[in-house]
Design brief:
Strand order of the largest sheet: 1-4-3-2-7-6-5
Radius of gyration: 16 Å
Number of strands: 7
Structural class: alpha+beta
Largest sheet: 7 strands, mixed
Strand content: 15-25%
Number of helices: 6
Distance between the termini: 50 Å
Mean pLDDT: 86
Shape: globular
Order of helices and strands: EHHEEEHEHHEEH
């Protein structure tokens, strides 16, 4: 199933920054401040980075999904790692940021555990989502990036226009969780916190 062709030469715009639904503003502010502080101490990039693009590409190869992300939760979701179909593929080309209200990663960050959605339409709670219409997504698997301090930096995730079988959901979830663990080990090895 092909996704709609993009209408312009620019990537699909999936962003207007707003607050996370269901989270008190004071809690969101405190979490964002702690996350910013940790990202700065770790020296993590806050824009596209080839190391994290490689993790996203590997994740799509291992799962067979079209889109893969390493996502930091800042004022917006920021995809420091991204793999997607080539521009001439006929699939939607996404940008490097998205609102904190869109997609399913906000749920992963809030619950601090993996979210397997082999068919997003199987649950009314998750089917009414901007990404379903804007990009035509049918399946999502995401896992949190939790630092040893307990702060959730963001997520790794994959999305695809085709649904997946329930029989394959556990395997796909485990691949996404494993990739999240690999990303956190990479961060721990290469990005020692500065004081």
């Amino acid at each position: 199933m092909l996704l709609p062709r993009r209408l312009a030469d620019s990537p699909a715009r999936l962003s207007t920054t707003r607050s996370q639904p269901g989270r008190p503003p004071a809690q969101q502010h405190a979490e964002l401040h702690a996350r910013h502080d940790l990202i700065q101490r770790l020296g993590l990039p806050t824009s596209a980075h080839q190391d994290f693009d490689h993790f996203a590409e590997d994740l799509t190869e291992r799962t067979g999904f079209l889109y893969g992300f390493v996502n930091l939760f800042l004022e917006q979701q920021t995809f420091i790692g991204l793999h997607q179909p080539p521009p001439d593929s006929g699939y939607v080309i996404v940008g490097r940021t998205m609102s904190l209200e869109h997609g399913w990663c906000p749920e992963v960050v809030a619950r601090q555990k993996a979210l397997p959605l082999p068919d997003v339409h199987a649950s009314p709670r998750f089917s009414g989502n901007h990404v379903v219409d804007a990009v035509g997504i049918r399946s999502y698997f995401g896992a949190p990036l939790i630092h040893s301090s307990g702060i959730t930096l963001g997520t790794v995730c994959v999305i695809d226009p085709d649904k997946r079988s329930l029989d394959d959901a556990r395997r796909l979830r485990d691949i996404v969780i494993d990739t999240g663990n690999q990303v956190m080990r990479h961060i721990a090895r290469t990005r020692a916190p500065s004081r």
